[in-house]
Amino acid sequence: MIVEPDSSECLIAVGGNLPFGDLLPYQVIDACMPAVAEAGFSAIDCSCYFVTEAYPAGSGPDFVNAALRARWPGRGAAAAEAALGALHATEARFGRRRAVRWGPRTLDLDLLAFGDLVLPDAATQDRWRTLEPDAQPRAVPDRLILPHPRLHERAFVLVPLAEVAAGWRHPRTGASVAEMCDALGPEVRAGVRPFVRPQAKHRL
């Protein structure tokens, strides 16, 4: 892989549990890959697809999840904001509506990390990362927090991410993706199941 000298590695979580037009959720993820490239990302490496239950439990159909490792031109906070904007624009192309937090959606593209960048600063990232579980549903950041403050807790993010970026290390904790994934334990990881593509139907 040729790496542009003035570019940053991006880790991106991908998911969806609603159809978009005639596309089923896994087909939406298929279709979003060229759209992500058109938005400005390069050297895109995608994990396998996985299935996880919607959170909170009973809030919608199962999700199809994956993870991307890609490059974005530029470095620093402004470049990270531009990458986030490109991801949001790609979501909108596939009918994403941000009406309900943690609700069903056609496509979710979360910027998990932008190289080893910490935003907006170390103290703020640490505060959001260590937020008490009871406060998490109510607290919503008003700015981009990097790395994603819930990255270390989410099996549906870490299991796919371990396929494409196992060695990436959190710039605040020093833990690698593989180590964070292992720390969840086998029972939690078991909730992230490999996705089996439907067999194509052949007409006789």
Topology:
Elements (H helix, E strand, L loop, with lengths): L6 E10 L8 H14 L3 E5 L3 E3 L10 E11 L2 H18 L14 E7 L7 H8 L25 H11 L11 H7 L2 H4 L3 E2 L10
Antiparallel strand pairs: 1-4, 1-5, 2-4, 3-4, 3-6
Helix pairs in contact: 4-5
How would you characterize this protein structure?
With 204 residues, the chain is α+β, with helices and mostly antiparallel strands. The chain has one domain: 2-Layer Sandwich (Alpha-Beta Plaits). It is built from six helices and six strands; from the N terminus they run E-H-E-E-E-H-E-H-H-H-H-E. Strands 1, 2, 3, 4, 5 and 6 form a six-stranded antiparallel β-sheet that branches.
Outline:
Helix content is 30%, strand content 19%. The model has no long low-confidence stretch (mean pLDDT 92).
Structural features:
Alpha-Beta Plaits; single chain; 6 strands; alpha+beta; 204 residues; six-stranded antiparallel sheet
Topology order in helix (H) and strand (E) letters: EHEEEHEHHHHE
Mean pLDDT: 92
**How many strand elements?**
6
Please give the domain count.
Answer: 1
Profile the largest sheet: 6 strands, antiparallel
Structural class: alpha+beta
Radius of gyration: 17 Å
- List the uncertain runs: none
Classified by CATH, the class is: Alpha Beta
Q: What share of the residues lie within helices?
A: 25-40%
Helical segment tally?
6
Which percent range describes the beta-strand content? 15-25%
CATH superfamily: 7,8-Dihydro-6-hydroxymethylpterin-pyrophosphokinase HPPK
CATH architecture: 2-Layer Sandwich
Morphology: globular
At CATH level 3, the topology is: Alpha-Beta Plaits
N/C terminus separation: 44 Å
